[in-house]
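ok here's the first one, seq then C-alpha cells
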Amino acid sequence: GLFPYKGTEEDGYLTLARVDQGNRTSMYPELRGIGGKVITGAAVAGDFTAWATYSIEWRADFVVVSLNGAPIIDTRELADAVNIPTVPMYLYIQVVPGPDGPVPSVTPETPEEVVTHVDWVRYSA
C-alpha cells in the first residue's frame, strides 16, 4: 500500500490488496482520500496465494488500481469525488499470514507458507 511520508493518515492512503481470509480467496482495494472516508473496491474472487500483478495509476485528480491488467477501482467512476493525496508516499509491501485485526483465525485451508515476491517496481513522475 501507499502511506503518507509524514507517517499519519491525515493525507490519505491506498491499500492495493486487502486479503482478509485465511485461505486467501478474495481481495479488495481500499482508498482513503485527503480527510475523507474510506472507500473500498468490490471484492475480487481468486487464488491470492498465486502470482498476481498489481498496478497503480496515481494522478493529481484520480487513482486507478488494476489487478492482472484489469481495473478494480477507478476513482473517476465513484459517485463522490475523492481528494487525491499529493504528499510524498511510502510504498509498503506487507503480508499478514495469520490473524491480525479483521483477519480471521487460520483455517485448514490456510497455506502453510505465505510468500510475497516482488518482481519489480517502477515509478515514473
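and now the second one, same deal
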Amino acid sequence: MKLKKLLAKAAICAAVTILAVSPVSAAESIAVPSSADTASITVTNVEHGATVEAYKIVDAEYSSAGLKGYEPVEGVSISDLEHPTLEEVQSVTLNIQNGDLSVTGVSMNDVTPSDGHSLGDGATACTYRADGLSAGMYLVLVKGVSGNVYNPAIISVGYDSNSAITSGALDISNGSWTVSGGRTEVKHSRVTVTKDTEDGIRSYSYEDTVPYIVTTSIPSYDPAVYSDAVFRLVDTAAEGLTFDKDSVVAKDTSGTSVDGSNYTVSLAGQTLTIDFDSDWILANGGTSVTVRYEAKLGTDAALDLEGNLNTVKVVYSNDPTSVSGATPYDDPDDPGMPKAESTVYTFDFSFRKVDSKDPSVTLPGAVFSLTGTNTTGDSVSYEETAGSDGIVCFAGLSEGTYTMKETKAPEGYAVNQNDYTVTVSASYGSDKTLSSYNISITDQDGTVFMNKRYTATPDADGTDCAIPNTAFMDLPATGGTGTLIFTLAGMIAVTGGTMLLMSKRKGSEG
C-alpha cells in the first residue's frame, strides 16, 4: 500500500463539516522512517472551550528497513483502512465510550490567541493542536459547548514521498464520508432555540391563556458515535404562570404533527419538560421542530414592569466520549447554553375617591365597574370597591381601552354620573421586554384625570388621580326662589280653600 495513496484517501474519511487539519512541516527528509518519528495534528474551526481528544485506532509498523505498513490497534477491527465503514467506526467509538478499548485519548489544546476566539453564534473559529503524535490514524472526538454538536473526524499521520513524517492534509469543511455501500453527508450542528407568544402578544389579563411557540433545531447525530441521544425542552415559568401539560403539540419541519409516542411530557411545579424519543431524534437530525403549549396567567402574576418570565432551555447529547453518546449537556453556568426567554405582562392602575369640595377627604365604599376588550379579543368585566383609604385599584389588565363607571356612591354622596375612558398602553424594547407603560383616564367631556408614563414601578400610582363625589347636602336646590314662592302660594291657596269649604259645611248644618 502506498503511503501517499493512504494519506489521500484517509483524508476524506471524516464526519464533521467544520473540522479541518492543516499540514505541519517536518524535517525535509528522513532517510529511514522509525517509531521515534512524530508530528503534530491540527484541527480548525472548533469553538473556544471545547474538549478535543484524539484516539489512535491504527498504528504504524516498522522494521530496520523502515516502514512496514499499518495495522489497527488491538481491539479495533477495520477491514479496509482506506474505507472504514460507519459500523466499524461506531464499534470503535462505542468501545472507547464504555472503556472496552484500551486507547488513551490525547488532548488537543486550543492554540488560538485569546483575542482570536469567536464566541456566540457560529463560534467555530479556534484551532486545536496535539504535538508528538506517531504515525497512524486517529479518531478525533469533540465535546462542544455553546450549543454545538460535532461528529467525529479521522486524521492521518504518515510519510510523504521524501519519507518525512507529516500529518494528513485534511480539509472537510464541505466534505463527506465515503463508506462502503454509499455516501453519507457529514454535518456540524448548532443547537438553537427561539420562543415567543403566539401572534406576538405581550400583555394579558388575569385568567387568560398564554400560548407559547418554541422552535428548536435538532442536531445531526452521526450514528457512528450516537447510538442513543437525548434532546429535551425544559421550560421553567414564573409563579404567576401555570402550564397546561395536556396542551403540548409538536410539529416537524413540514408542519405535520409529531406523533405523541415520539415524545413524553412531564410537569413538576413550574417546570414543563418535553423529552423526545431517541430513535425519533436520530431519524430527524438536521431538521427543526416547533412546539406549542399553553399557560394560564393567574391572579398572583407580577404586575407592570416586573413581568412574568419563563425560560426554555435545550438539554441535549453532545459528548461523543460518553456511553452511547447519550449523556446530556446541561450546564446552567454556560452563557452559551441554548435557551430562550419570553416575558408577558399585566397591568394595574388606581385612583382616589375624594369629596368634591375638599379633595383631602377620601371616601371609602364607592363601587366602580370596568369593561372592555383585552388583547386576545375577549370581553372583560371588573368591579372594585374603594377601600378605607378611598383608593380604588383595578389589576390584571392587558393593554387596551376600557369604560369605567361608578355604580354605587360612598355613603352620603350622590353617584358620579361620568363615563370615564381608561387607556392602558405599553412600549417594548427590541428584546420584547417592557420599557414603559402609560395610564390615562378621561371623562366624556375630555377632562383628563390621569395621564402618566411609567418607566419604573410606582410606589403609589393612586396619588396621581382623584375622582370626586358630591355630598347630598351640597346638591343645588331644585327650582330656586321663584319656585318656592309659587309653592308657598299654592299651599296657602289649598289651605284657604279647605277652610272655606269647612265654613260652608258648618253654615248648611245650621
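notes on #2: The chain has a mean pLDDT of 82. The longest strand covers residues 51-63.
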